Every structure is written in C-alpha cells, then in structure tokens.
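User: Structure tokens for both sequences below?

Assistant:
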Amino acid sequence: MRPFDPALLRAVPAARRPVAALGALGTAGGLLAVGQALLVAWLVTAVATGGPLRVPALALLGVVLARGLLAALAERVTASAGQRVSAAVRRQLLRRWLTVPEELRPAPEVALTRATEGAGSLEPYVGRYLPALVTAAVVPVLAVVTLAVVDVWSALVVVLTLPLMPLFAALIGKHTQDETEKRWAALTTLSGHFLDVVRGLPTLVNYGRAEHQAGIVAEVGERHRRATVRTLRTAFLSTAALELLATISVAMVAVGVGLRLAVGWVDLQVALTAILLAPEAYWPVRRVGAEFHNAADGAAALEAMGDDLGGFAASGAGDPRDDAPAGDGGRAVAAGCAVVGWRHVVPGAPVSVEGVRFAHPGRAAVLDGLSLHTPVGPGLTALTGASGAGKSTLLDVLAGLHLPGTGSVTVPGDVHYARQRPLLVPGTVRDNLLLAAPNVTDGETVFALTAVGLWPALAAREGLDTVLGDDGFGLSAGQRARLSLARARLASAPVLLLDEPTAHVAARDKPRLHEVILELAEHRRVVVATHDTALAGMAHDHWSLLPSAEGDHEAARPDVRTGMETARSDVRTGVEAARSDVRTGMETARSDVRSGRRVLWAGLLGGLSTGCGVALTAASGWLIVQASFQPVILTLLVAIVGVRAFGIGRPLLRYAERVVSHDIALADLAWRRSRAYDRLIPLTPARLGRRSRADVLTAVVQDLDDVADRTVRVTVPLLAAAFASGLAVLVLLFVLPTAAPVLALGTLAAFAVGRLGQRLEAAAHRALVTARGRVHAEATAVAGQLSAYRAVVADPGTALTPLDSATTAQAAAVRRAASARAVATGLAWLVLGATATTVAWQAGTAFAAGTLSAPFAALVALTPLALADTWTGLPEVFGARARAAAAATRLEDVLAQEPAVVDPRPAASADSSATAPAARPRHTAVSAELSGVTARWAEEGPIDLAALDLCAAPGSRVLLTGPNGAGKSTALAVLARHLDALSGSYRQDGTEVNALPLAHTRSTLAVVDDEPHVFAGTVRANLLLARPDATDEEVCRALAAAGLRGWLDAHRGGLDATLTGLSGGERTRLAIARAILSDRPVLLLDEPTAHLDRPTARSVLHDLVTSAPDRAVVMVSHEPVLVLSPDTTWDVLQLERPDAPGPVAEHRALVG
C-alpha cells in the first residue's frame, strides 16, 4: 500500500484537476499560515513591549480572514472533488465488470464492497489526504527558508529533525497496511453476509431462524469492530508519534532560542517568530499523519481495485483462460486481456459451441467437450434435457456470462438472454423494459406487453408506471416471465436466449407465448431451453443434453452415509455461545453508552488534549517573554517543565480519546445494526418486498454508520471544545478579567456559527442522504447482479443510467452542503480573528496601563489563537450532526413501517421467546382453513386475492391453479402468515390465527416459494436452517426424496460442499429437501415443478406427498397433469383474477 498511487490519476482523469486545485489551495493556505506566524510574533512583541498595535492587529485580522476565505473555498472543492472521483471510480468499475465473464471479475461480495464502501473511501483519500501530501511537500520548505532568514540556528534544528517524521510514519504505516487489509477482509465478509441475509430473510422467517441469524449478524459485526479498532489504534499511533516528535523538535528550537534570548544574543521578536514559525514546518507532515487512517482505507481500496481501474488492453487478443485453472471454471485474474480468445462474434455465422468444457468450482464438469451448431439464419432451436443436465449453464456460456475451461463459442451478433430468474429491478415496468431497449416508445412497449398477454393486468393498475419491488415484487411468477419475454421482444439483438420462458405460465396462456416465440424466430435465432414439450415440438432445430452424473435420481437409502461426519453439534453450540457472548457484550457496551460514562470520559480526554495545546502555546509565549528579561535560568524551570508536560500530554491524551471514542462508536454501531436487523424481521416479506433490498442495505450500513458516528464526530468534539474553551476563559478570568468576557463571547459566537451551519446544512444533508442512498442502492443492485444485467443490456451504459442519475443528484446535494459549510467556516475564522485581535488589544492596553506584566500579556494574547483549530473545526462538527440527523430520519423511515402481520404476543413475550424453540412437537397433524379471505399486498391498492374458501385438513392435498395474477401466491402468503387477511377468517385447528402467537403458527408451516433462496454456504448449512438438530442421515434422506442424491454424490465435498452454479431446478429441489427435512405438518409449495423436467417433477412430487401421509399439502401449479397421480386425491381450486367477471374460484375434487 503506497501513500499515493499515480495509477489513480492515470486511470481516472476526473481526479487530476481536483487534486491539482486542492494542492494549490493547500499550498496557499500554508503560505498564509507562515505569514500569520510572522504577524502573531509582531503583534505579541508589540503587546509585550508597549509598541503600536493597530498595524499588526489589522494585518493579522486580514490574514485570518484570508485564511477563512481560503478554507471556505477548500470546503467546496474538497467535497466536490471527493464525490466526483469516487463516482468516476465506481462507474468505471461497474462498467468494466459488466463487460467480462463472471470468472474475470471479483466475487459478488467483493464487487459489492469495492463499488460501495471502496469507492466511497476514496472521497477522504482524494479530498483530504492527497492535498495534505502536496502541502507537506511544499510548505515545510517555505517555512524552513523563512525561518533561516529569521534565525539560521533554529532552521538548522528543523532541517535535522524534520526527516525523522516521514521515517517514523513509514515504519508505523507498514503495520497499518497489514491491519487495514484484515479490516477490508472483515468488511467484505460483512457486506456479503448482509446482502445474503437480506435476500434470504423470507426463508429465515419461514423456518423461524431469523432471530437466530441476528446472533450471526452480531458476531460478524463484532469481528468487524475488532478489526477496525486494531487498525485505528495503529493509525492513531502514527498520528500521535508524529505529533510527539514535532513537539519535541519544537521544544528543542524553543530551548535554543530561549537560552540565546536569556543571554541577549537574539531579540524578543526573533525568538517569538522562531517558536511560532517552527511548528508550521512540522504541521503539514502532522496533518498527513492525521489523515493517514483515511488514506489507509482509500489506498487499500485503490490497491484492491488494481487492474480493474486500468481496463483491458485495447489490442489484447489473447485468451484469458491462459491465467485460469484449466477447465474448472474458477475465478481467474486475467489482467490486461481482451475477452475475445474464446468467444467470436461473426455476422452471418450460426450459433455454435466447439469443444466446450465447463465446471462450477468443486463440482464435476456439467459440460464436457460439447459441440453444437444451429442452422445459419433465423429460426427456433429447442434446448432440452433433464433438470441439471446443463441447459442453463450452456445458455450462460453462449451469452458470455461464464468463461469455459476449454472450447469456443460463436454467435452472429449481440445476444439478449431472458434467464429463469429474470432481472427485474425496483422501479416501474417502463424502467425494466427500457433496460433492453432504451429508445423504444411507450406505444411499442404496450404492444409488446399486449402480445404476451400482460397489458390488461397492468392497465388495471398504473400501466407502464406500475411500480415493482426487488425481483419483480408485485407481479406473480408467470407475470414476471411474460414481462421478461416482452423485454426480449423489444430488444434488437439478433440472438435471443430464453430459459424456460413458459415455466410459470398458466397452461391456457401458453399458446399465446408460443406464438410470440415463433414470431421472434422468424427474424432472429432463438435458442430456448424448455421442459414444455409443445414448445419444443415447434422448434426447427433441436439440441439435447444428456443428464450428467449429478442429475441421476435415486430412491432414499437410509443406510447411505456421506462419510463427512462432523462435530456439528459442537460447532452449533459454539456459535450460539459466541452469539450470546457477543450480544451480552454489546448490551453491556450499549448500557455504558446510554449512561454516558464512557462518552463523558472520551470528551474529558479530548478536552484535556485540546487544553494542553492551548496551555502549550500560552505558556511558551509567557516563557519566551520572561526569558527576554534575562532572569536566572533556575527561575524558568517550572515553566519549562510545564511546557514539556503540555507538549507530551497533548498527543498522548488525543490518542487515548480517539481510541476510546471510536471503540464506543463501533460497539454502538454493532448493537444498532443487530437491532435494526431485529426490526426488519417483522416487516418481511410483505413490507420490504416493494422496497429495494439495496435501500435496506443502505439503511443498515451507511445510514447506521452516520448515526453511530455522532459519538466520534459530534458528541466528543463538542464536549472537548466546550471544556477547553471554558478552561481558557477561566484562565483569563484570573489573569485579565476584562478579557474573559470577550473570549467567552467568542466561544459562544463560534458555537452559534456552528449551529447556524447545521441549520444551513440540514436541508442539504436530507437531500444528500437520500441521493447517497440512491447511489448506494443502484451500485448495490448492479454489483450484486452483474451477470443478470449483462444478460439483458446491450450497452453497459444503459445499466448505469439510473446510477448516473443518482450520482448527478448526489453531486448537486454535495455542492449545496459544501456551500453551507463554506459559509459557516468563513464565519468561524472571522470570529477567531475578531476575538484574537480584540483580546490582544486588551492585553496591550493592560500592559501599557501597568496592570498586567509583559509575560502574562503575551499569554493572554496567544490564548485565543491557540483555540484556532477547535473553533474553526466546529462547522464540521455541526455538519456531521446535521448528516446524522438526516440519516436517522431515513433509517427510521425504513424500520418504522407497520408490519403486514400482527403478532398477538406482548412485546416482552415476543422478545423473550425469540430464540426459544417452538413448543409444538414436529409433525403434529394440523388443519388450516380459509373462509371468505381477501388480501392485498399494498396497504392501499387493489385487491390481490378475492374471497377464497380453502380447507387443508391433515392428509389432504389442495391444488391452486388459475391464470397469472389470480392471487395464488397471495393465498399462500396468507396461509404462511406473511400477510394478514383483509377480510374473512383464517383458522388453524379451529382457532383464529390472529389469536395464536406468530412463531407458533409459522412453526407448523414449511414454505417453498416460487423463487427459493439458497444461502452462500454449504449444502448442510442450507438444509439445517429448517431443522438444526437433524442428523446427516436425515439430511441425505431429504435430499434423496427431492431427487438430489446423485447431485450430492457428484459434489467433491458432499454435505460440506459450497453451493455454486445451481440451476433453477436444483435450487427448487434444494428448497423442497429443506421443507421435507423440517418435518412440519403443513407444506405450502409455490410452483415447485416449474423448472423440472416431467420425469423428475413426477418423481419429486410423488416422494414429497407420500413421505408423510398425514401432512396437509397446498400447492400452486399451472400444470395439474404433473401433479395428479392415480393414488392421490387432490382438491383443485381454480382461481380467477379479482377483476375478472364471474366466480373467482371453482372447486373440483379430482383423482388422478
């Protein structure tokens, strides 16, 4: 990690001008600081000798005002520069990743961290640290040259000691680099974990594991806290060491000057100039150290981004697989290569693969030496094969989403890929369609939606302005599939890849989609992976994939063991104990924070540190003036010891304050994050479904950071400033009572200016927090779904259009906030200048009147100037307060929603039983009955489920079917207690569910939704969510019942294998195995066969419904023919859309 990496300026041209401007401003500020030191020496000499005060006082006031104007300008440039560079880096990273296969970009959690926190960490790096480096390279030279003119011996001391500071900084910085890299690893884990948990929160809620996961969230947050504190201790040590070294060096200058002054070798003004000018040579280097912890994050992020900022070589024609492990599909670092060695775009050529081999990490090759060709020109190619045979993987390779281990791909042009789980982003229907075709008109989009049969349902709502949530929340699975097909129809790509486009569509509506697909095939080459035999029969060309070893199905074999025996019980007990310890520790920390003891202690440390700085300056002035009278040296020893103590105490106390305050803030942050997660649980999924998960992540990451930062950036600095200023007023009250009110008024004015700045910044920060949330949300959405975006957008710029819009809004808000901050900063310097010159005038007048001695007159004159850093820093403190308030409001907006389901338990009871196991024994027969139930997802909006009667008695089988949008999934949500009924009655075992504890009701239900979530982790961990005490044998039985026995055997790690590259069918069957393992008496299944071939579907359903004959099963399906079997009776409910004429449900009892 280098202090400055020129790659930033080369790779991001937007950084060049801001960095140069900030360097120039820093240098100008350094020049004014040197001039101020000369003028202060002149003014104090005049005060102590009774000389004229008007000219030096007015000159000093002018220089202070000039510094204020320069500081105000620097605030604007700093804020804009940081935001501009971070935005450019973020966009460049995402654009780069959108053009390469998954194997040539970072893992999703790493990409997420780099595009959000990583890019954001460049703001202080660019805005503060780099200008400090420029200033450190220029200003010390100017100070030393000026000092040499004034006193060559003092300049010699500075020249000999100044090089030691960067040496010490480099030695300490090496350790900081190691700690920073560990912290970034912890931050990456935290980001990836939060993203995975938020995505899978509905699954955790379904199986009663959401509260347990809160402990893991707390544990991960605690690890991040410990890593951050370790890093900060080292970074703050660097600052303290540099300040201590500077203090000792200045003391050496002061001793030399004082001794020469005492024997008459120099005069008073020269001596004062030397001791005031010497710190200005060290100050820029100390500032570098003070900004070092910002630089550590920014430099580490920049180094981690590495070649992602450099771009591929324009002329590169090599094969990036040269750097990849052969044929394993693993991630490769292929810097500087163009991805053209394996994928060829040849106009007029057929779609073909030659000798393609691909394997997901840790698994056998799903494609091995595959060679296939379509005819030249437009037409329909059907890709068929058993579930898990590699159909989706082949389409991924054709689309360029995956890099094959060997072989090549040829396509005649751009490719549009409608995946099994289509990319549907938070926003309107129009927004989602424009991803593939940004220039189409509303008329064309309506025509495409009409062609797929979706427009009537949308027209009944808000049409193209219908708002969708994450993953198309607000539409049924079939409607999402239709929207994806409509988008493919609007795309201009000559090659369309469709992955099971009719899987979730009602049988009576499939012919319409068949017609659309055949129409598309008249002008383009369409490759469709499907289990729809009717659609496959219409194809002009067929590709058939044979099942791989992991696709074989075997019956459950109770005697089969994986051989992967683990100490699961011990591990689980250890995790629970760690979670308990972490939460207990954080509750204790939180209790301390609430009591304010640790915060007050940190504020006291900060006040003492600032007070030492004030005392050091004032006492040094007293000492030098006293020495000018050439007294006996022994009479100065007490003052010398005091100056030395103040000089040593300031950096040590500052180090202690920073460590303590940051530890408090990070513990508070970990507690708040865990608590925020707890508050998200009741809102899942109904209240969060329409809100982007990226918004939620922003709330529980960035907004929480700002709220928790109040301790470090607001509370402690305000306490320290008040303490130090009050102490200074008390000192003047004893030394020169007439000056004390002036200093007190100056203190109040400085605080008032800060408060004014807060009010000016408040509106800007509200807009800024909102805009920053949008930027974070858009970056998270893209970084978390890079392959999905790449599948549908022809130009990466289209995917980044919402991010660009959010960035523009953020830039405007940053400018507004910076302008308000600039006003407050300028006023703060004005208050400082007016107070300092007024107090100096009073001291000079008192000395001339004989009521104050010369040494004490110097002490009084220097005291306000010693408070310069404290007073001029108050606008930043109050600005942080405004930002924290805006973040808290935005956070509360997410967390304070009313849950969609009312839990009748008292709050205390709910908390106490959050982690307690369900009292109901597993697999106890339960009946569920709906009577006249209606429901809707939006708090205000159209009905999504019309009046429904349903009875699921123990052992019964209920099939819900009907057109898309009829409310089938809504009915399951009501049964699963994700949504309260709007009207009607829902009884479980004859008791109204609203009278039963929510956890009790949900503990009887196993849910498999239409897009099941699989967590990042092992096979075992994903299944044990449903039943943590299950044995390996029971897990294997559940997998076998779901048709995954052969799939498991193909994994090298068995149950300990990490899940990657799952097909839609495999993901669904894993969710089914989880439901079987849960052994709950009611199964709720939302289209569990949608992504399965027919033999597999029938086998899985047979095992599912026969595994426990007394279970109640409620299933949603568009293919009753797959569900019905000769030995099972199904009650079939045919639902109709609420806006359709006639009966909304027709009941039939069918025996296969």
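Moving on to the next sequence.
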Amino acid sequence: GDFHKAISYHERRLQIAKEVGDKAGEGRAYGNLGNAYHGLGDFHKAISYHERRLQIAKEVGDKAGEGRAYGNLGNAYRSLGDFHKAISYHERHLQIAKEVGDKAGEGGAYGNLGNAYHSLSDFHKAISYHERHLQIAKEVGDKAGEGWAYGNLGNAYDSLSDFHKAISYHERHLQIAKEVGDKAGEGQAYGNLGNAYDSLSDFHKAISYHERHLQIAKEVGDKATEGQAYGNLGNAYDSLGDFHKAISYHERDLQIAKEVGDKAGEGRAYGNLGNAYHSLGDFHKAISDFHKAISYHERHLQIAKEVGDKAGEGEAYANLGNAYRSLGDFHKAISYHDRHLQIAKEVGDKATEGRAYGNLGNAYHSLGDFHKAISYHERDLQIAKEVGDKAGEGGAYANLGNAYRSLGDFHKAISYHERHLQIAKEVGDKAREGGAYGNLGNAYDSLSDFHKAISYHERHLQIAKEVGDKAREGQAYGNLGNAYYSLGDFHKAFSYHERLLQIAKEVGDKAGDGRGYGNLGNAYHSLGDFHKAISYHERHLQIAKKVEDKAGEGRAYGNLGNAYHSLGDFHKAISYHERDLQIAKEVGDKAGEGGAYGNLGNAYHSLGDFHKAISYHKRHLQIAKEVGDKAGEGRAYANLGNAYDSLGDFHKAISYHERDLQIAKEVGDKAGEGRAYGNLGNAYHSLGDFHKALSYHERDLQIAKEVGDKAGEGRAYGNLGNAYDSLGDFHKAISYHERHLQKAKEVGDKAGERRAYGSLGNAFHSLGNFRKAIEYRERHLQIGKEVGDKAGEGESYAFYLLQFLSEGNFHKAISYHEHHLQIAKQVGDKAGKGRAHGSLGNAYHSLGDFHKALSYHEINLQIAKEVRDKAGEGRAYGSLGNAHQMLGDFHKAISYHERHLQIAKEVGDRAGEGGAYGNLGSAHQMLGDFHKAISYHERHLQIAKEVGDKAGEGRAYGNLGNAYHSLGDFHKAISYHERHLQKANEVGDKAGEGQAYGNLGNAYHSLGDFHKAISYHERRLQIAKEVGDKAGEGRAYGNLGGAYQMLGDFDKAISYHERHLQVAKEVGDKAGEGRAHGSLGNAYGMLGDFDKAISYHERHLQIAKEVGDKAGEGRAYGNLGIAYGNLNDFHKAIKYHERHLQKAKEVGDKAEERRAYGSLGNAFHSLGNFRKAIEYHERHLQIAKEVGDKAGEGESYGNLILYS
C-alpha cells in the first residue's frame, strides 16, 4: 500500500531498462508505474504510463503485454467514470487474450468487463461476464481468480439486493482465499461480507467482518486497504447511529489516504466524514472540515475533479445536495443534485442516475412541490426496475409514499409503503423493513387510525432495537409519541418524546435533539403548560440556529408562535409566525409558507381582525392548491369557515366547512372528517339550528371514539353540551360537560379542562344555581392563571360578569369586566375588547345607569363594524335598543331592534332573529301598542319552537303573558305564564321558574286575588334566595309589598318595600332603588301620610332624572300629582300630572299617557271643572280602545258615568 515507495523503485527500473535498451523491460516498468499511480488515485497519470506501455508492447510485438495494457487502461478509465471507454479497452484485451490463447488473461478480461457493466448498473450483464470468468478460472485451475470471480459475483448480487446470494458468493471467495493463502483476497472477502451484512442491517455482524478485514490489512502492511477497512467500519457505526465512533474511523481512513497519497481514497474519506457530521445533525460541520474553512464535501469534490474521478465527483455533488437540503437551502440542494444527475447520464451509470432522481424528488418534496417530487421518484422507480435494483425500487416506493402522504392521498401512500415493505422483506433488509413500518405508521396516523399507526411504529421500534440502530430507535419513539399525541394521550406521548431526546443525546444527533425538544414542546402545549412548551421550543430554536438548520428554525418559530397564541399574547405570536414565514420564503418551502400564512390567519382571528385573518387563510389555500397539499387545503377551508363564522356570515362558514369535510372524506382523514363535523355543528349552532348542530357533533363524537381520539371525544362532548345548553336542556348540557371534563383530566388536557369548567359554570348559571356556577368559574380562572393564558383569564372575568349580573351584584360585575377589558387591550384582541365593552354596558344597564350603558354599547358597535363582525354588530344594536328602552326612548329602541333583526336575517342567525322579535315586542308594549307587541312575541315563540330553544320558548310565553296582562286579559296572561313555568321546570331553569312565579303573582294581583298573588311572589322570593339572585330577591320584596298594600296591611307592605330598597342599594341598582322609593311613597300615601309619600316620590323623581329614566320620571310625576291631590292641592297636582303626560308623550308610552289623562280628569273633577274632566276622561277612553286595554276602557266608563 506504499505507492510512493513503489513508484521510486519502478522509476529506477525504468531508468535501467532505458540505459541497457531493454524495450520489454521498459514497457513493463511503464505498466507498473501506471498501476502505482492508479493506486494513488492519479488516474490521468496512470493512463499516460499505460499508453506508453501499450505503445512499446505494439513496437516489440508483445501481444500479451498489449492485452494487459488494454486491461489496465480499461481499469483506469473505469476509475475515471468513463465506463464505455473502459469497456472498449477490456474488449480489446479480451480479443487479444483469445487470439494468443491466454485463458487467464481472457478470464481477467471477462472479470473487468463485468466490473465495468456493474458500474453502468447493468448488473445482469455483469453477472454473465463474471460467470465466464469463474468458468475459465475453474478450467485453468486459477484458484485466486476463481475466488475473485466469486467476490465480483457477490458484489453484483448485492447491487441487485439479493444479499443472501451475495453472502454465499463472498463466503466461497473467503474459503478459496484461505485455501490458497491469499491474505489480500481474504481481507477483501471479509470487507465484502461486511458490506453485505450492512445492507441486511445486521450492523454488528458487519462490524465483526470489517474488523477482520482491518486486521489482515495491518498484518500484510497494506495501508490503502487498511484505510478502506476504517472507512467501512465508519459507515457501519454511522448506520448504528454511533456517529462519534463513525467519525473517528473516517478520520483514520483520511489520515492513511493522505500518508499513502491516495487522492481518490482521501476524497471518499472527506465524503464519509461529511455524511457522519450530517447524521450528527451538525449540518454546518457537514459542509466544512474540522478547520471550518473548507467543506468536507467540497474537498471531496475538488479531489474528484483533480484526479478525474467522475463517479466521485457525482457522489460529492449528491452529498453536498443532501447537506444543503438539511440546511433548508433547497434550491442550492437541487442545483447540486442536477449536477449529480448530469454526470450520471454522461458516464451512463443508470443506478446512480436513479438515485439522483430520488434526491431531486426529496428536495422538491422539501420545497412543497409534491407533484414534481412524484415525477422524479417515478423516474427513479423506473430505472431501479430496469437495472434490477430491488433496494432502489423499495426506496423509490417509500419516497412516493411520503410524497402522496404530503399530498393528503393517504391510501395511495399506504399502497406504496406496503410495496416497500414487501421488497425489504424479500431482500432481508431489516432496517428498511423497519423504515417501511414507520412510514406506514405515519400514513395510518394521517388517516386517524392511531391504534394501527401505533402497532406499525412498535414494529419499527422492535426492528431498530434488534439491529442496534439507535438513530432509528429514536425516530420510532418520536413517531409513537406523535401517535399517542393524536390519541390525546399526552402523558404517554411525553414519555416517548423524552426517550427520543435521550437517544438523540446519546448518539450526538443534534438535529434529533432539536426535534425531540420540539415534540416535547408540543406535548406540553397540549397539556396546557404553555410556559414549559415555550422553554422547549426555545431550546429547539437554539439548536436549529447553532447547526444552521433553517427548516428546523422555521418550525421552532412556528411552534413558539402557537404557544404564545395559546397564552393570549397574539402580537408576540404574530412576530414568531412572520419569522417562520420569512424563512419558508427564503428556503423556498411552499408548504411551510402556506402553514405560516394559516397560523398568521389564526392569530389575527384571535385579535378580532377577521378580514386580515381571511386574507392570510386565502393565501394558505392558494399555496395548498398550487402544491397539491389536500390536507393543507382542508385546514385552510376550515380556518376560513371559522373566520366567516366569527364575522356572522354563517352560510359562507358552512360552505367552507363542507369543502373541508369533502376533502377529509376524499383523502380518508377520519380525524379531519370529525373536525369538519364539529365545525359544521358550531356553525349551525351560531345559526340557531341547534338540532342540526347536535347531529353534526354526534358524528364528530362517533368518529373520535372510532379512532380513539380521547381529546377529540372530549371536545365533541363539550360542543354537545353547548348545544343542549342553547336548547335550554341544562341538565343534559351538564352531563356532557362533565364527560368533557373527565376526558380532559384523563389525557391531561389543561386547556380542555379549563373550557369544560367554564361551560359547566355557564350551564349551572342557566339553571340559576349561581353558587355552583361560581365554583366552576373559579376553577376556570385558576387554570387560566396557572397556564398563563391571558385570553382565557379574560374570558373567566367575562363569565364572572354574567354571574354577578344575575345575582344583582352590579358593582362587582363591573370590576370583573374592567379586568376583562384591560386584558383584551393588553393582548390586542379587538373583538374581545368589543365584547368587554358590551358586557360593561350590560352591567351599567343593570345598575340603572343607562347613559353609561349606551356609551359602552356604542363602542362595542363601533368595534364590531371595524372588524366587520356582523353578528356582533347585531347584538350591539340589540343592547343599544334595550338601553334606549329603559331611558323611555321607545322609538329609538325600536329602530335599534329593527337593525338587529335585519342583520340577524342577513346572516341567518335564527336565535338572534327570535331575540330581536322579543325585544321589539317589549318595546312596542312599553309604547302601549300591545297588539303589535303580541305579534312580535308570537314570532319569537315560533322561531324558538323551530330551532328547539326551550328556554327561549319559555321567555316568549312570559312576554306574551305580560302583553296580555297589559291588555287587561289577565286569564290569558296567566295561561301564558303557566306555560313559561312549565318550560322552565322541564329544562331545570330555576331563574326562569322564579320569573314565571313573579309574573303569575302580578297577574293574580291584577285579578284582585292578592292572597294567591302573595303565594306566587313568596315562591319567587324563595327561588331568588336559593340561586343567589339579589336583584330578583329585591323585585319579589317589591311585589309582595304591593300585594300587602292592596290587602290594607300597610305596615307589612312598607317593611317589604324597605327590604326592596335595601337590596337595590346593596347591589347598586339605581333604577330599582327609584322604584322602591316610589312604592314606599304609594304605601305612605294610602296610610294618609302624604308628606312622607311626597318625600319618597321626590327621591324617585331625582333618581329617575340621574339615570335618565324618562318613563320612571313620568311615573314619579304622576305619583306626586296623586299625593298633592290627596292634600287637596289640585293645582299642584294638575301641574305634576301634565308633566307626567308630557313625558309619556315624549317616550311614546301610550299606557302612561292614558293614566295621565285619567289623573288629570280626576283633578279637574275635584276643582269642579267637569267639562275639562270629561275631555280628559274621553281621551283616556280613546287610548284604552286604541291599545285594546279592556280594563282601562272599563275604568274610563266608570269615570264618565259620573257626568251622565
């Protein structure tokens, strides 16, 4: 192996031959020098010497020498990668050997031709030549030649992936080499056996053979072969995942190649070192030597060019392409693989041409151009079949499977991976068999058949352990972690990802280390531990930057964006997703670019900027269509559906979710199909079609159970609970939310657990069980704070507002909603900010501060318009209408409710449409237009029945009862209130049950059955106390006071009114406080204490003016008029009644206008001005007839009869 020493000896021999004129000896010396330079890898210099040898052989007529020269020239041109020229020289050698009868030379020529055709990937032709070599060697008794023929046959069958046949030939070679004492041949046989067992993935056996090869090389002092043995050992340890040990062997190979001057060997060693550092994930070192100046692969390339080694040059280009692909520089990778392909075509190496197509396919796959990837992999497959390369054929099937999986065609992917598996089993390649199981696992994971996926990943893991492949063992653990993640078993996923991380550290796989951290980050994210998730993603990012893994860096930024999104820090999320997008564009990763646009869309959605969200989701959709990513296309449709749902365009939302569903069915994605059903359920829920929503959520649940997705099962239970809540079936809703909670706890899903607690809080709130509602909401808030979810924390404060409003604790409600507003501002959530303003408006409404309520609702309306949230805009109009109604501006209230109704119809919001009809009914009732009020309440009732809203149906019955009460049809009013009570009992609505009892009490009061009225008001009071409804408790006290007042029990009446007043003050209900003052004034008036009565009425008037309650102000004027009339101060009484009349006309309140006319008639009667009295009583009668108030009409006739 000391070629330099050999050259010096051959040069001296040449000099002597020239001196003595020995032409034959001179020729032989040239031939020997050619062989020595060949050994050094200097093939051009070798050729020049062999050509001189040929020339002299021709001159002296040495036919045998001429033949040998042709053979040596053929070997040199083969080493240069010029296989066709090599064949032409070997054919001339063969021809001469036959002419001179040189059987040994003829056999050698056949062997060389076999090697040349092997290099051209024509393995069957190679075998036919090696068999002729073998036959001749046996004929002439050339045992060494026979051994080499067996060795060459073994190599050919190895290339055909018939590894067991290859081994049998190499064992025959070994046996012969031992028999004849051919140590070099023995070493070569051990080396070939090592390579064959490496191909079978029996790396430990391969290593034992390579160590014997190394031992022999050292024994015989063959430095070049020693280097090759080190290189083979390095490759075997690389396959085992022991990259550091691999590097140490490749460095010894490099050192020897430099010592003996073997340029080709030096190049190969640089290439192997580059690959080993690549496997370590230290991609920067993979393209640079340990001096960090010249890349290993570039040094390999430089040497290959220097010595004219076309095959080595191509191999270097391929390695550079793979390294740049790992760095995320896919365009540069493609340029290198194109050069590799060009060289393979130039030299006619079909097998290498196929590998180049495969590498190009992988690079285009990384770019997200899956169709182009498939076209390259199909060319690779075609060539592998042509040349009979079974292993290459399997690899092409695997690559095609991965490409079709990325396209979302999972069934086609599976068929390709099954073909790969079949081939791996046929050729006995355990490692590739394991890889095929892993790919099948990933494909079944995409189909949501997670249990099948796990079984395949477990087989992959078992094989990786059997063959001792640590790197693939780590991959199998990672894939198992992903499958358990998909099943919602986050704790199990977490344990597998930790094993992946442990192995990556053991074998020094930096990229695997990074992926392990990323996977753990995702697992902690799913567990709701967002801060821990961020710490792992930051470690992944740090590693990706260190090793210059641009693609990994982008993924880490994307994952960090998702984690900050979950924390409610949407602006930070956007900054990370923008970095991910930038990197995807830089490296040309179209699929990654699409995913980044999707994530940005989700972040802007959470900020309430739905139109910006839509623009990003449309870009994602466009890219997914361009690259043929069906799964990505489906996700984009789903995200667009969610955005249009938030905008209140529910029909458009449904059309997008239906497209998502169609794609999920096409590609066989069961989990995606379930997700689409869930989204469709939510959209129909928003439309108020709760029964249709239920049917979709039940399909989602069924699929989640089929595929074993525990987390998805929990979400489906939660959605079913929400639908039953909206239907008013609160007990059923609670049972579903409890199942959601149970599943979330089972899989450790903190975010799902938080949502379940919030939903349970809402359901118990709807049942009127405010104490239990608070208990669940406190757990909801606690989890939000634990995991650092600012948006979720804000949502918790929003829940509390509803709670404290229901309890009548309005000041506390406001403080919680100010927290919600503050958080919404912090995280930049425009839509959330709008909702918070709306909630604050509701709180101030409950406090009786209607002007402040209006200001908050107007801000909510403005924000809803800015973000173009039609449904939110409609709700804001409804809230503004309610506030104007309380201010006594009924016409303005109606105009707002009509806008709400118009929007609800536009967006198809049936529940909102029903609510708007109900509000219009209440406003027309306040105007005294009771018939119009009834028509609106009947439309509300009809819609509530259509959509199955039991609670809404009950409210409509209650409102109809109130309208018929105002018409004086108390019996009809009672029948409607009884239906309201029945519905409230059916759905377990305690708060609604209490309201129905209160309304029944008022109806029996008007019928004069005060004892029955009191019994109903006492039930109302009892329920209000049970559920903690302070405002309801206050109203019940007021109604009881009114009933005892009519029974003449004024002391009892006053005590109840005082309790009403006390409660109103406690909860900050100014409007209720005013009403209580008015009721106390009436009670003291009936007691004859008119001065005290006046002071209470004046306090009522003052409060009504403060809060802007025009109707309440009018009633206070009327009560003051009655009090001054009782004091016989009729002129003052008339002045107050006129103000009452003026206010009633201003706000359009026909009922109060009628009462004011009646009171003025009575006052003028007392003054003896009967004509004016009659005039006012006639107006009283006219209005009673107009509005259909039979009781009022009867009262008018009673007054007018005095003048007949």
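User: Anything stand out in the second?

Assistant: Residues 384 and 1102 are 95 Å apart (CA to CA).
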